[in-house]
Design brief:
By secondary structure, the chain is of the alpha/beta class. The protein has 14 helices and 17 strands. The chain folds into two domains: about 150 residues, Aspartate Aminotransferase, domain 1, CATH 3.90.1150.10; about 250 residues, Type I PLP-dependent aspartate aminotransferase-like (Major domain) (Aspartate Aminotransferase, domain 2), CATH 3.40.640. Strand 7, helix 7 and strand 8 form a beta-alpha-beta unit.
Length: about 425
């Protein structure tokens, strides 16, 4: 078991009292809090190493470049790939947009892209953009438990399906998709296989598998700073892709009417990069490695099981997603049913779904400093698939413990549903 008390002391914001009460932060799926070591690493870079990278011959410039490239190596080692296969971006969203624009030239009218009904907008909108060019976008259905329907997946793969892009873990349902199996099916069809790892890389042990062509994730969801993201791509794939943006740094030679681009990954990092973000992300990875990703995952499974069991005792709660903690991550989306709303529906003069608005649930919990997310979680198609407007969502990380779950349950017990 993790020593959560010791871990919490590493996070300055969790020492803060609000209205005399401690913070119960249950929104790590949106963004994680930052340990002192990450904050200090960023400050240390600015105090001692600040210079632009890859373009200066003086010593300070070389030191800054070394900080940046050592961060790239640390990220690469963390997921078991080569440094030159790691592109720094702003976030998962930018990484997936980069792929959408750079892969566009490989597609023609009538080609198909396949994603799932549980995707975040970041893995929908970049591909939806291509419908304007006559590219067809298909969605994989879900089972009642919240898993991908594998038979539906297989039935929707056509010879025209050129790209398959799937989340590793749903940010709403918590479902962990079997990307090994999915990648094998994709490769049998000779499709490009892309994984959104924003919700998985921070929470479980992972080493890259051969069937994945590209993978995206964000630093701020794994204890790192905001504004730094990662795109992994097989080197041979990155070498073939045109750059997403053009400008300084990413060129070998420019004439008045022609350009020769740098090799990957620099080819995709136009302009001055977020060097301090990369340094902070590297420090976050060091922190996670010290804890051990196996321990991170075990802790989250323990908390998720306790939370599912405790929440299930509330008679007016609706929980979404799988119940098997081996197949779901540390995120629980739920709604609260209202008896009063049910009575109004029964009267026949009002059209409601019988659920308290998730914002009202979150606002009630906020009064006790229990911080959960509410709304559609940037997954509106999934909400429409589930026939709801949104959910409240509690998510756990290394600095949460049983006391946090008890605070959540206690807060929900105090909601008047009559």
């Amino acid at each position: 078991m993790l020593d959560v008390g010791s871990i919490r002391r590493d996070f300055p914001i969790l020492q803060r009292k609000m209205d005399g009460k401690r913070i119960v932060y249950l929104d790590s799926t949106a963004t994680t809090q930052k340990p002192e070591s990450v904050i200090n690493a960023i400050a240390e870079f600015y105090r001692n190493y600040n210079a632009n990278v890859h373009r200066s011959v003086y010593k300070l410039g070389w030191e800054a470049t070394d900080c940046y490239e050592q961060a790239r190596k640390n990220v690469a080692d963390f997921i078991g790939v080569k440094s030159e296969e790691i592109v720094f971006t702003r976030n998962t969203t930018e990484s997936l947009n980069l792929l959408s624009y750079s892969l566009e030239g490989k597609l023609k009218k009538g080609d198909r892209i396949l994603i799932s009904s549980m995707e975040h907008h970041s893995n929908i909108l970049p591909w939806m953009r291509l419908e304007e060019r006559g590219i067809n976008l298909d969605y994989i259905n879900l089972t009642p438990e919240g898993f991908l329907d594998i038979e539906d997946f297989k039935s929707k793969i056509k010879k025209e399906t050129k790209i398959i892009s799937i989340t590793h873990q749903s940010n709403v349902l918590g479902t962990i998709n079997d990307i090994d199996t999915l990648s094998k099916i994709a490769k049998e069809n000779d499709s490009i296989f892309i994984v959104d790892g924003a919700q998985s890389i921070p929470h479980m042990p992972f080493k890259m598998i051969n069937g994945i062509d590209y993978m995206a994730f964000s630093g701020h969801k794994m204890l790192g700073p905001l504004g730094i993201g990662v795109l992994y791509g097989k080197y041979e794939n990155l070498s073939e892709l045109p750059p997403f943006q053009r400008g300084g740094e990413m060129i070998k030679e420019v004439d008045f009417h022609k350009v020769e681009f740098e090799d990957p990954p620099i080819k995709f990092e136009a302009g001055t990069p977020n060097v301090e973000g990369a340094v902070g992300l590297s420090a976050a990875i060091d922190y996670l490695k010290k804890i051990g990703m196996e321990n991170v995952r075990s802790h989250e499974k323990y908390l998720t099981r306790k939370a599912l069991d405790s929440l299930s005792t509330l008679k007016n709660i609706q929980i979404y997603g799988p119940r098997d903690t081996e197949k779901r991550g540390g995120v629980i989306s739920f709604n609260i049913r209202s008896e009063a709303i049910k009575r109004k529906i029964a009267s026949g003069n009002i059209h409601l779904d019988g659920l308290l608005h998730s914002h009202d649930v979150a606002s009630h919990l906020d009064e006790s400093n229990v911080f959960v997310r509410s709304g559609h979680h940037c997954a509106q198609p999934l909400m429409k698939y589930l026939n709801i407007k949104g959910t409240a969502r509690a998510s756990f990380y290394i600095y949460n413990d049983i006391d946090d779950i008890e605070a959540l349950v206690s807060g929900l017990e105090g909601i008047d549903v009559q």
